[in-house]
Specification:
479 residues, alpha+beta, two-stranded antiparallel sheet, 16 helices, 43% helix, binds adenosine monophosphate, binds magnesium ion
């Protein structure tokens, strides 16, 4: 495996060198051949994947490190977090010249483990695998999973669980919390180095900009506006939007107690630790902006020597989030409603559809998916309410003002509105079976979520909303 080390080339206070701790009996649970191929990795890796990606036999070129970062957890600042159970092996460059981190998650303790064991249980590892693959197939920017390896060892949470290691591929692992780590130490030299690193890695068009810190802030604001709008289109609830779980690349990262909406309600939370609903579905755009304001604070000393001027520039950048988000959200909604053109009342049309769903807590995914049927006069998948009837009449009027054939409209709707999402009850069932040694439900669900827009017969069992006794109301981090 050809690995580079641009992050490890940063000064030693950015990271700590640490070797993965070997495990008793590594066994490959899942191997992402499509991703390995996209990264240009040697197909022969698969045969040695259990040893390599458990951490027992790291590639010869690996230079394993744990990254330092801080973070605002549920609003509270923690000046030192860092990779407590993740170890970066190095970076690979794909055939297009794009660079990706290769990181083992659950590979044993690091200097940042605090009281943790540095390990992960099979459930959270396979959850991240499944959900990140689903997000990728849905077109949402995300880190991805290359491999999941069982360790043959138990981890102890509420009880003993089988352990596993996830290999995560990410554009990078630099987080808002990475900037906070150095800002908290008033280490402006390190902040400058981090700004150049991130510009070089993720925003190369900003190279040579007169005000790199400000330009970077604006770019990250744009990337996050786009990302969170994409989450909202598919009903994704991240669950732990702490600043240490927000990547400056604009990829979804750190899948913990995440979930997808079944019935639509903006106040919906799933995470058992989010008792006050801070990270509820509908709060996500506001929280993203709040996190970006924390990034802005870190960059102030680099933006301008004059404190007031720096604040004014940063504030303007952060205020750019709301219009950027709204634009991404609205263009996504137009696609979801089958609108190829723009009209002034589209935003109200989009919001009123959601309101009609909310009134009866209709299924989010199935309701959008039903719109293609509704273009053919089949309203079966939509709530039968006066509000929805009135909405459908407005929508039809709006569609009548669209150019193009009605037939291609149904196809466009089905290409915008997924039939299959990783339903929480399906995910839980697959993870429970995997913990008992049966990977078949995980593999079947993975195959289905990789084809989210396909509603052919093999997909049907994965499309259904949960019946009341199947509904999952709480998810757990499992850390
Ligand atoms: P997370 O909730 O996964 O984003 O993790 C928050 C912080 O806790 C990060 O610094 C993690 O590295 C650390 N952490 C989570 N689980 C463990 C564990 N089992 N052992 C050590 N550190 C952990
Ligand atoms: Mg995290």
């Amino acid at each position: 495996m050809d690995l580079q080390h641009s992050y490890a080339a940063l000064p030693p206070h950015f990271w700590s060198a640490v070797e993965p701790t070997p495990v008793a009996a590594p066994r490959l649970l899942a191997w992402n051949a499509a991703l390995a191929d996209a990264l240009g990795l040697d197909p022969a890796l698969e045969a040695r994947a259990a040893a390599i990606f458990s951490g027992n036999a790291p590639p010869a070129q690996a230079r394993p490190i744990a990254m330092a970062y801080a973070g605002q957890q549920f609003g509270h600042f923690v000046p030192q977090l860092g990779d407590g159970r993740a170890i970066l092996l190095g970076e690979v460059t794909d055939p297009h010249g794009r660079r990706f981190d290769v990181q083992l998650k659950g590979a044993g303790p690091t200097p940042y483990s605090r009281n943790g064991d540095g390990r992960a249980a099979i459930g959270p590892v396979l959850r991240e695998y499944l959900v990140s693959e689903a997000m990728h197939a849905l077109g949402v920017p995300t880190t991805r999973a290359l491999a999941a390896v069982a360790t043959g060892e138990a981890v102890f949470r509420d009880g003993a669980l089988p352990g596993a290691v996830l290999t995560r591929i990410a554009a990078s692992h630099v987080r808002v919390g990475t900037f906070q780590f150095f800002a908290a130490r008033e280490d402006h030299a390190a902040l400058r180095q981090l700004v150049s690193f991130v510009i070089d890695r993720h925003y190369p068009t900003l190279a040579g900009h007169a005000n790199p810190a400000l330009a970077l802030l604006e770019a990250v604001v744009g990337a996050q506006a786009r990302l969170v709008a994409a989450w909202m289109q598919v009903g994704f609830v991240h669950g732990v939007m702490n600043t240490d779980n927000m990547a400056v690349s604009g990829e979804t990262i750190d899948y913990g107690p995440c979930a997808f909406l079944d019935e639509y309600h903006p106040a919906k939370t799933f995470s058992s630790i989010d008792r006050r609903g801070r990270y509820a579905y509908g709060n996500q755009p506001g929280i993203a902006q709040w996190n970006l304001a924390r990034l802005a604070e870190c960059l102030l000393p680099l933006i301008d020597d004059d404190g007031e001027a720096a604040v004014a520039f940063a504030r303007a950048a952060i205020e750019g989030f709301a219009p950027a988000y709204r634009e991404h959200w609205l263009s996504g909604q137009r696609r979801k409603l089958g609108l190829a053109t723009e009209a002034a009342d589209d935003e109200a049309l989009a919001r009123d559809f959601l309101e009609a769903l909310q009134a009866v807590e209709a299924d989010f995914t199935l309701s959008y998916r039903a719109l293609s049927g509704a273009t053919r006069g089949d309203e079966g998948g939509l709530p039968k309410t006066p509000a929805m009837d009135a909405w459908l009449a407005r929508w039809r009027e709006r569609l009548a003002r669209e150019p193009g054939e009605a037939a291609s409209r149904a196809a466009a709707l089905d290409a915008a509105n997924p039939a299959v999402i990783p339903r929480n009850h399906r995910v839980e069932a697959a993870l429970a079976a995997a913990a008992e040694g049966d990977l078949a439900p995980f593999e079947a669900l993975l195959a289905a979520v990789r084809r989210p827009f396909d509603d052919g017969p093999p997909q049907r069992p994965f499309m259904a909303a949960p019946v009341p006794e199947e509904r999952v109301t709480h998810t757990f981090c499992g850390t």
